[in-house]
Queue: 4 jobs
Job 1
Amino acid sequence: MSSLLDTRVLKLNSLYMPFDTMSVRDALCDLFSGVVEAIYVNDAGQYESHDFTSWSQLTEYRVSHEAEWIHTPRLTFPVPRIVRCMDYDDIPVYEPRLTRAGIMERDHNTCQYCNRKFSTKELNIDHVMPRCRGGKNTWTNLVCSCIACNVKKGDKTPSEAGMVLLKKPIKPIRKMKFTLPRNTKTYSGWDKFVSEIYWNTTLSDS
Ligand SMILES: [Zn+2]
């Protein structure tokens, strides 16, 4: 049975960049020993940093009622959901994950056929070699495409459709933006640090 102590806490480096998650249990140990500070996003959207003492003095009056609380014989305090490793300043480098968001990010939300920029919702992921003709879900076969270009291209290759790709699609060398593993439960305030987390369903080829 998983307990509250096994649920996840978002881990930031000293530059407030997310790079991992950890259990509440580990986060409390690190907070107690001063390795991390707890970050609280207040109602105005500002970040407050707390050491163990000031965190354990947060009261129900200040923290939203959605917060979960830890009760010890002497203290009652909210579960930290974001912590910052004060002495860790490496810029996290991630193995890029093949996701819809990853393709959008690589292509800068730009249709790779007509070179126009769109919102994420207005873009499709196009298979350069169409799926029905054996095209795979790979970095080198997926590009951003606007709906008009997508319709025009249909089940043809770019050359058959008389269309030209802006550039050859490649696998990004590294990805700067942290993405949560699929199905990770998220908490209040995480969206300030992790963007587009809901787009990170892996485009598997199964
Ligand atoms: Zn287009």
Note: Helices lie at 24-32, 52-56, 100-106, 147-153.
Job 2
Amino acid sequence: MGHGGDDRSGAGAPRVVIIGGGFGGLFAARALRRSPVSVTLIDRAQHHLFQPLLYQCATGILSEGQISSPLREVLARHRNVECVMAEVTGLDAERRVVRTRRPLGDELDIGYDYLIVAAGVRQSYFGHDEFAALAPGMKTIADALTIRRRVFGAFEMAETAADAAERQRWLTFALVGAGPTGVELAGQIRELATRTLRREFRNIRPEMARVLLFDGGAAPLASFGERLSGIAARTLDGLGVELHMSTVVTDIDRDGLEARAKDGSTTRHRAGVVLWTAGVEAPPVAAAVAAATGAATDRCGRIAVGDDLTIAGHPEIFVVGDLLSLHKLPGMAEVAMQSGHHAGRQIGRAVAGQPAAAPFRYRDLGSAAYISRGKAVLSAGPLRLSGFAGWVAWLFIHIAFLTGYRNRVGAILTWWVAFTRDDRRERAFTTAQVGIMDDVYDRPPPAGGAGPAKR
Ligand SMILES: Cc1cc2nc3c(=O)[nH]c(=O)nc-3n(C[C@H](O)[C@H](O)[C@H](O)COP(=O)(O)OP(=O)(O)OC[C@H]3O[C@@H](n4cnc5c(N)ncnc54)[C@H](O)[C@@H]3O)c2cc1C
């Protein structure tokens, strides 16, 4: 690999740079396996992450290692692929150079003949970026581990709380956004409170934990259609999740949040933990790509592409996965896999001097959401499954798609133990780690009450 946009060593072969090793980037790299090209996959993380199981990592069932695989390991047999750990910061589309920042902050330019932008999306706070520290979203392993510490940390704080009001506040979990991730987290927190932690504390009753789920829409899991959405609402209600639908969260602070209902009334809810899964937006690298190429972007900053997945006027630049804006395709793993594969094949054909493949067509394989043990909903074509049947289907899909044989076996064994014994092994943290939770724990002593709390 060369600095300053130089040719990569051993080159001569066309250079393909892929930004992002998520589903889109990984499937693009795999599709180029037999092509005479030299691929550089750049990611700021050293791993490929299976985002659909992040919530199980966040709630102590699976470890971070079980839902991720080192990119180098995944692509070890792809002899034409090189992995670079760096953050892409800019693009010079004229010189065909990608600007990156290496882990210690120095810059590295990488030249390309073809570029595949597969950088995904990040959590959006709808202009309230100050909410991010108070209410983490769930997009990365770091997010999941922060959530895990806050959720289990809240029970620890409740156990030694000075008074009943403070105890109840720590035992209240507020979740913003009732899409699949919010629903999955809500179900898991009630489950761990009523099952896993039930016998472990002496001063609190974990099962008294309240889980409040807020959404501006009328029902949870609205994208699954009215029937499954209704089933999800009833299942959550049965689990003890308190649904606050048609309610918009207007403010979040260290004490909880404020929400406005449809009738305009505003209510304050005290909560020890607030989590945010309400929206997504394109990361800064998308704006850099759009500025360098003149590409149009949509409301969320996703990059407009044609049916061949390239940016207008730049047949050498492809956008795939969550970041592409085309026919309102949803941000789903299958879209990323199929578009990544398509972009890789297109480049392979171009390099081989073959005519371009047919335009990209997404084959919708459906979607599934886990609500609680033994209960999930699945929507695929005309098929609608819920309850136990939905859960079995969910299980098979996630095992089939989890990256890496070891992760699959590990997840099956862990789920077996977790489901039969309510066991969650992944919850080790110490008081030394509360530094990571500064915004929650590092609060000034209550007014007039200096000194340690007494019980
Ligand atoms: C919690 C959660 C649950 C989900 N559940 C489901 C589900 O059940 N079913 C489903 O179909 N989909 C689900 N999804 C959506 C699915 O995971 C995404 O659609 C898919 O991961 C998109 O793939 P991608 O390759 O476009 O982006 P990503 O998987 O997000 O990958 C983007 C990669 O780019 C890297 N990157 C970003 N910016 C830069 C930069 N500037 N420089 C270098 N690297 C960069 C990131 O580190 C990352 O590795 C879920 C998503 C989340 C967050």
Note: The chain has twelve helices and 25 strands.
Job 3
Amino acid sequence: MLTVLGRNSERIGRDNLSAVLREVHRHGAVSRSGLAERTGLYRQTIRSLVGQLAERGLVDEDGAPTAGARGRPSLVVRPRTDTVRVLALDVEVDSLGAAVVSLGGTVLRSVRVARPRDVAAPAATIDALADAAAAVLRAGPTDGQRVVGIGVAVVGVVRRDDGLVRLAPNLGWTDVPLAALVATRLGLDVPVVVGNEADLGGMAEHLRGAAAGARHVLYVSGEVGIGGGLIVDGRPLDGHRGYAGEIGHLAVNPDGRRCGCGATGCWETEVGEAALVRRAGIADEGAGESAVGRVLEAADAGDARAIQAIADVGRWTGIGLASLVNVLNPEVIVLGGLLARLHPRIAEVVDDQLRRRATTALLEGLTVRPARFGADAPLLGAAELALEPVLADPGSLPVIPLAVATVAPAASRTA
Ligand SMILES: [Zn+2]
């Protein structure tokens, strides 16, 4: 009996420590009293937990008064950005991203490099990813700075357990062991976790972006393909094998075009980059982001075909969204990537299709917004994936010597 009680209190202590770190990580600077309110824990418990996090270099605190506070200022707890770090990587069809990210979601360094589509082979991709990683890691990390994990976002169907990319039609990949390849190539001797870019983009937008605070979220990222990140009752919807959210392959047009997945008339054949460029008649299909830019320029210059192409993509976007709204009853729809770029131009036609096709009751309280983090949403989500072990069990990190724990350089503090 005593053993069970001991184990339970150990677990409760770990969960409380995790809950406090998650709050600070998510919201940035927060007062001790704010932490007590948000977690429902007693103030003296908060003091002890904050002390444990500070000993591990995860947070620091000062007496700066909170805005509008009266009387005795409550100590403000902040995530430290100079200790725990992760490397985030992002594999898109037209670009690769890399970033070093710390607690609080603070991006310390990041790069995004364009790449030609003819170098999508896994080996060439890993080489280019390693170059991007070297660019962000070169300036650091130095003493006391710890890269504790690597998170990778990829435009494909990913087996989360071992980071195997089962299928990435727009990269031409089948069963590519991405986590293992990245681990071997970078040789950092830290865990490598891989997730689908839309799942991770949705996670980032839900945590701190356009869907912060919402419980039911549909994130739709558009590039060459269309990916979906679903948050149901505050949690990501994974599905039986973790592959849920392949909304780009929703069948919308049985008489449509052949899709990279092998089926015909998938949603992404009507709203992806290729569909936009094809309809505008401006460049060859699959010409990438620059071709999208040319469509937008042509539309701005009054080109009727380009304007119509954008309107058609908007119409098909609304058609797909209406079905998803009927299934999921989301509170917020976040449009990412290409769809975020198009949002100001297609918002009206999307709304019109939603009104025509979604059940009225399911449109009540629904908002459609562009992504806050744009193309970097998946990269930020990949960082969250890599930080997860620290957030889940901060007590597992070693207590760092007092000299290091207290001498936090002023420049590293976030304002
Ligand atoms: Zn498809």
Note: Residues 249, 259, 261, 263, 266 surround zinc ion (CB under 6 Å).
Job 4
Amino acid sequence: MKETTLKKIEKLKMELQNKGLDGVLIFHPDNRLYYSGFSGSNGCLLISLKHGEIFFADGRYYEQVQRESPHFKLNRLEVEDGKNVMLGFIRFMKKHNFNGKLGYEADALTVKQYHKLISDLPDVIFEPADELLSSQRIIKDPEEVEEIRKAVFYAETAFKQIEDKIKPGVSEREIGAELEYLMKIAGAKSASFESIVASGVNSSFPHARPSGKIIREGEPITVDWGAKTDKGYCSDMTRTFFAGKPDDEMLEIYRVVFKAQQAVLDSIGPEMTTGQADEIARKIITDAGYGEYFSHGLGHGLGIAIHESPTVKFGDNTVLKPGMVVTVEPGIYIPQKGGVRIEDLVLITNDGCEILTNLPKIAY
Ligand SMILES: [Mn+2]
């Protein structure tokens, strides 16, 4: 991953220059992983036009930084700093009389950390760089797409092994636990998020947690799961099934969601805005009379984070570009009754999309 990581840093530096920034301070674990390849849990990065790439680490991670992030210069904390890597960063900035403009992640720093920064470094102008950083991650390079494919493979391999188990008499939690275990056995580092297994009335909560509830005859079961690779890339997909014969209304809802999702998969592509993609599904669901029950956006970007740019939602003007990877996941959720969601992962290509998830969907 080394060469592509260097390219990412070069691209970031060009953008820093365009925005009149002298560097950026990175604390967020996802951004840290993206630029450094570091898989540990503490440390911050300075990527600056003048001083290059510096990794501020505490003593638990010196060797790991040297091994995983050889393109960064390791800056070791003083013993009295404990694990507070920000102290190392502040010391470095003072030593070099850094007085330029520095980007920081408003989304990742605590209020306390931010106050410490601005009071200890009064000569530095701090500017939020969250959008700059997330826009850098929005287009996936071929290596990242390969990682996402691997994550899909782990998730689907696991699912195929438990598919037959999703039936009356089994608890949601049992299915969730087995899915996560089997994804690891298939090669995943972990699940990319806590799997959702929601049956019966629980399926009307779009983000239900698996409970001890036992699946009963005729109920809808929504399973939303994904895997994470060793390099940190995610997959995400959802299928809704029926345990036996569903009632007519749930069947009708399933067919509407299925049709809405298929319509998006058939037409999503470059130059379409994410709002237009959402509108394709929303129109079908609204025309069927269920508009108010499609209570979330159509989808989201995915990469190192399970949710990242672009957000695919109603009214959004972000233009889809080749190399973006987004989910397509319309749903209808009827309170006290149940819900249906179907989700696939797509790579936007030059002439449309490639669907990265392969598990068949049942056309009830
Ligand atoms: Mn999703």
Note: The chain has a mean pLDDT of 96.
